[in-house]
What does this fold into?
Amino acid sequence: MQVLLRYRGRPVTPADARFIQDLITDHPDASRRALSTKLCEAWNWRQPNGHPRDMVCRGLMLALHGAGHIEPPPVRRDLLTCCTHLLHSEFACCHFGQGLAVQAERANLGFR
It folds into this structure.
């Protein structure tokens, strides 16, 4: 059995990489998070508490992508998800710079 890489003790074969790439191809509008959840469901990859190992699946997909075995969808930046720290901070958003902080302050969104 050819092993492309080992990830957290799991051998990952070319068939596994093809399965993941097919999953990506079959769900072109899915985010990386949604794809990792689908992969966990397909492989029944769960934590001891029963929750999916979606972060582990995302890490696996990144490792396969870094090694050139799959092409995941582009990273999405959801303004509400990635920038919620702005509601509790005076710092500008790490992804969008000072402009967002200034706009939110002007809109009186409760920065401080």
The chain has two domains: 5-66, 77-112. The chain has a mean pLDDT of 80. The first helix runs from residue 14 to 26.
